[in-house]
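Archive entry. Fields below.
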Amino acid sequence: MTPADLADAIVAAIGRAVADGDLDVTVPTTVTVERPKTPGHGDYASPVALQLAKAARRPPRAVAEVLAGRLVTERGIVGVDIAGPGFLNFTLAGDALGEIARTVVRAGEGYGQAAKPRDVRVNLEFVSANPTGPVTLASARWAAVGDALGRILTAAGYSVGTEYYVNDAGVQIERFGASVLAAAAGRKIPAEGYHGAYVAEIAAAVLAGRPELLDLPDDEARAVASAEGLALMLTEIRSTLEGFGVHFDRWASEQTLHTAGALTKAIDDLRTQGHVYDADGAVWLRTTDFGDDKDRPLVKSDGQPTYFCADAAYYRDKRGRGFDQLVYLLGADHHGYVARLKAISACFGDDPASNLDVIIGQLVTLSRGGTPVKMSKRAGTFLTLHDLVDAVGVDAARYSLVRSSLDSPVDLDLDLVTRQSSDNPVFYVQYAHARISSLLRNAEALGLPGASETADVALLTHPREVDLLRGLGEFPRVIEAAATLRGPHRVARYLEELAGVYHRFYDACRVLPQGDEQAGPLTGARLLLVAATRVVLSNGLGLLGVSAPERM
RNA sequence: GCCCCAGUAGCUCAGUGGAUAGAGCGACCGCCUCCUAAGCGGUAGGCCGCAGGUCCGAUUCCUGCCUGGGGCACCA
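PREDICTED_STRUCTURE:
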């Protein structure tokens, strides 16, 4: 019996109590079940009686008694105690907890995933950095978090499409093209252009492919430099991200929206919905109808569409491709967009509360020896994702970017990031996995079955074994919470916790026979438990895009 | 001025209204004849920013204030 099973049983018990007239409340769809921190409070506890007491107009302990009587007969539950103001403390049958190990090993890679798919198509857009330079550390966080979130949402049963929006139109692209051309011609790069060393490399590559570049008329040369430079830059961005284990289902081009007339269609659509007006020679969207500070221009008085207009067109494009919920993962420097995106959603007639979810993550800051270092693509002063991966590897990089809450800024100290790699908690988790792998290899060498289906799990009664079983049982709920709350860091924190529980188990409980001992039933049960732990560590690390090594 | 985020152990940070608030790092003291010591045990370290409010119950929710970070455009 997992905690999720127990929660279901409690809901059912409330339902029966209401049907019998013993309780007068609306039956909740889900109830809180938690692992008591203190020993002596059973295997699991629920404060549900306290929560229902008010609605039921009965003292909490009376509600608890009504429920306890109906739950004590439940299969797998051997004891229900009422404690304190009305907590329900559950003691599970010895084998009910142990069965978790068998469940995990049977499910294998599928353990932790939602039992049935949800009928929700989620579009997840992240990174979407301007393709005018390499992927920076600022974007690296969104790459690691967004990719992990995509995997977690998929595991939680959502149908997910990941997307990178390529801003391949507009002024920045023109400046980038001008910079590439200047570098190719050996001229000084314009002040408002891009000054990173990579511009010269791109220029050399463009020149190699188009030797006639410098002989073309200036306009044409700039267009070629833009287009070819952009293509090279995008290839590099893609390969950096793929090398980081981050895959996008779609690379959406802004330019394509322009050429396909999507912006015009979006404006027409919004006009039909009644939220567009003309003023001062410009075309405006009345976003103030939906909580924005001021109305936003769709088309400037010079006839050029705004970036905001492209955003609206892109929103409409995604919805038109069948996505129910559009998730945007943005940095805190873009938080001003939230109100605008909500307004776009509402202006199209959608419900921003269900069709849109803008996640704001705090920024990554760089420092060296405690002194802040500025990141700027235009000035060319930044550390790239590529550099970070070279320095610490994909696993440590991804893990350290994903283990913090999005509400919390991440500071990477360039002096520490390379040196501290061995302090990274990712090794603590990976080490647990490697230790298990080694143990299972030794078991195999001894001719012992790795994870016997017939193991007597009722023998797993040592406190460290019980802790481990409880920890394994949490995994599905961790995925669920990480998906619902959009918090991939929860998976990382859970894995650290689980690894700690395993290390303590390993220290206290000998698994393999030593000397001339014979393998007994307990050996088989512990091997099953250990194998189950490896499954969860491996699945969890997989959700974060971090490898689960067999050896370290 | 308005908006967003944060303030929890020396440092970095977890904590979906529940019982005695946790982890890692750092400090100190211990543990390898044995399945990987990248591990384990122990000690020290807390007005959970401040003040009100809601609640049987608040680190968690609400209001105000203080401090720190970020953001305001017919830029992209």
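CURATOR_NOTE: The longest helix of chain A spans residues 218-243.
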